[in-house]
Amino acid sequence: MSETMDMDTKMQQFDEDVEKIISLLEEKAYFKARDEILKYNEVDIGEVLEEVLEELGVEKTIILFRMLPKDVAVEVFSYLPTDDQLEIVQGITDREISYIIQELDFDDKIDVLEELPANIVDKILEKTPKEERKLINTFLNYPDTCAGSLMTPDYISLQETMTVAEAMAHIKREGMDSETVYTCYVKKRGRKLEGIVSLRALVIADDDTLISELMNTDYVYVSVYDDQEEVAETFKKYGFLAIPVVDKEHRLVGIITVDDILDVIEEETTEDMERMAGVMDDSDTEYLDMGVFRHVRNRLPWLIFLTVSLMITGTIITKFEAVLAQVIVLVSYLPLLMGTGGNAGSQAGTLIIRGMAVDDIDLKDAFKVFWKELRVSIILGVILSAFNMAKVVFIDGQSVMIGLTVAASMILIIMFAKLVGGLLPMAAKKIGIDPALMATPMISSLTDMVSAVTFLVIASLLLGISL
Amino acid sequence: MSETMDMDTKMQQFDEDVEKIISLLEEKAYFKARDEILKYNEVDIGEVLEEVLEELGVEKTIILFRMLPKDVAVEVFSYLPTDDQLEIVQGITDREISYIIQELDFDDKIDVLEELPANIVDKILEKTPKEERKLINTFLNYPDTCAGSLMTPDYISLQETMTVAEAMAHIKREGMDSETVYTCYVKKRGRKLEGIVSLRALVIADDDTLISELMNTDYVYVSVYDDQEEVAETFKKYGFLAIPVVDKEHRLVGIITVDDILDVIEEETTEDMERMAGVMDDSDTEYLDMGVFRHVRNRLPWLIFLTVSLMITGTIITKFEAVLAQVIVLVSYLPLLMGTGGNAGSQAGTLIIRGMAVDDIDLKDAFKVFWKELRVSIILGVILSAFNMAKVVFIDGQSVMIGLTVAASMILIIMFAKLVGGLLPMAAKKIGIDPALMATPMISSLTDMVSAVTFLVIASLLLGISL
């Protein structure tokens, strides 16, 4: 990697190397494969192992994994997806498992222990010193999506009365992780968090400066049961590298580092997007790793809901059979109006849901949203109506009254769709429902019903057909 | 902020303080307002100013802004949204502008200069030392979404031949930003990047260790023209705090820090979500700050596209008028089938688009996606068909043949929708089109057409109606 390559070239190079390693393993040239793999850093080695596991199965993967230097093996293990970690755990000895778990960073250790079968966890905990076992149990009990589940207890503690020189000597002795060393935490008696000092401040300050002079007591922190989405918002807002987590008594219980927040943001965004498309998935399992029945279970509830709503729309339409039977051409405009309504609504819905998710839009902006969508929908409605009227009259050769029916319905439907799309997610948030659930599927099912009724009522009025 | 509060309480407290500050400003109690605002840190002060600007207008905001201590004012300025920065710039003197710009961190400086009117930029550059002016001009020329536009030239440079003690003394002299100090960069002659050393390694190492012994030469880097989305992926993959940016000759031109990547991820995700809902917006303007006509312009193209596609579907339906006129009840099932198809397709589309965006799904997985969606769609199709058939026959009291027509169409439509939803985004990526453009609007317009044809053809076959 000594020369500059752009991303594509790098990835291509990597893919070629992976293929090479796989064919070396197939030929049982294990040592050559290991030498090849050790050119990469631990994150990339993790990716190679994933590929090997997929292509050659678990036995060869474990042979290769065992050939890695011990410290590399531990780090690589921490980067593997949970499923792959479990496969490897099942293939290695208890002693090897214990070694890996012991060497993992605390937060990775918790993540792995959470997923391992209970009997393996018990075996590992038996061999763990009592103090750490207690700590592990506390961490394992934090709910999955709260600040507590993201934090690590590995941080640098200082005292107010230390000098910079003493603090630096302390840091040198502890020799922490690269992620967690850059902010140090000053605690009072009873573990209460007093202030924070950045390593940068320590490095720049004179040796005999007191920590109490350097520390920042007006720091931002999160509470251990704060939701991970709020923690992520705090990181985004302030641009921190780490943030302290305190309990009810304001005792420092751990810190959260920004690298874990990148994963949280990805997870939360994926959840939002899936919900917005009517997929209910509460796991973090990747698409390809998820079984067919699980996919069915995730997608069925909304499809059933939507089908029922569309059945109701269908029943409404049958009430207007008289209108449709008389002017059968109206049938061909029904999907046009319903479809345009659904799309117009989902545009507005997505903008508002995303705007609220990134804190650009607040509940108190409801009237502004209403006013903006009202004007946007009138303009869009007029343009699309004119366009459709022209098509109905000049291209389809229908009467002007039918053209007017389509045009008038179009304006009303777009206005309704935009306003519902904009305000429904806000109403949901107001009453504590995830706005992402009010996206396309919900909005379009509402819009569909209203579109059908609007169109058919206007048709019967304008065309003078009695219902 | 000395006691623990959960997020909601904190936010409520903040909102109350903002109201207090605004009423103080209304009463012209400027000094009290300033004292109140200075309790908060710079990010929060920025938020207060945003509120003040919105509630009380630009004059009062500028009075308050001018009363802030100079260093606080500069930092607060850097956190304001671009629109608000421009409003403030227009209200303060050239000298104040120059001061702020000069004091900003280099990457913030570039961001501000990019948005300022050319005449103000020229004035500022006139007063800038020649070397820096050259650098600013180079940075201003990087395209908006590449690595170059995200980087800062403020980083710590070391030499291989330095000892740790010399390096630490150097860092102390430079006294960099908190974000950029934690990784140091070792350069050869000709500015070529040789290796990187973390501040952690320096702190832990003995004073007389040579940098060449500590540095990591197998570092990950990006190229100056790499797309920001790829840079974000690199950060997510490796969990770095900063990453070096090199040019074609592998010279170090700057570094990118993780706090800027959080913004990139947010921006890219928002763009994806908007595109997936048929909103074309190439600006970063927030929903509420965007004018009505701009909103119309962003939403009109897809609505027109969809309307045309729905017109075509309508025309197809008119070809089957004979079928519909004979069995008018079929009309009420048409939206049901079209709607379910659209929803089923958009579920699959969203899963695949998101899966590709987070690198869980690769183009080479196309067959796996096909096979998974095929099975999922058959199971979902059978369940929904049975459900619908029961409704048609037992609740609506229609004939079994009509029930069968609906059921058979339902299975075929769901299969088609899931396969198109899954594979269309992959095909788009293959030929270099953003998969997000192939989401709900595109998938549902295709599904609509196919649904209509499928249903009406099956109806005419099963019900024995000649076309």
Describe the structure.
The structure is a homodimer of 467-residue chains. In chain A, helix 3 packs antiparallel against helix 4. The first copy, chain A, contains 22 helices and six strands. By secondary structure, chain A is mainly α. At the A-B interface, helix 12, helix 13, strand 4, helix 15 and helix 16 of A face helix 12, helix 13, strand 4, helix 15 and helix 16 of B.
Quick synopsis:
Two copies of one chain form a homodimer. The first copy, chain A, has helices at residues 7-26, 30-37, 42-56, 58-67, 70-79, 82-91, 94-103, 106-115, 118-126, 130-140, 147-150, 164-174, 199-204, 211-214, 228-238, 258-276, 292-319, 321-326, 330-357, 366-395, 400-430, 440-462, and strands at residues 156-158, 183-187, 193-198, 222-223, 242-246, 252-257.
Annotation keywords:
467 residues; 3-stranded mixed sheet; homodimer; 6 strands; mainly alpha; 22 helices
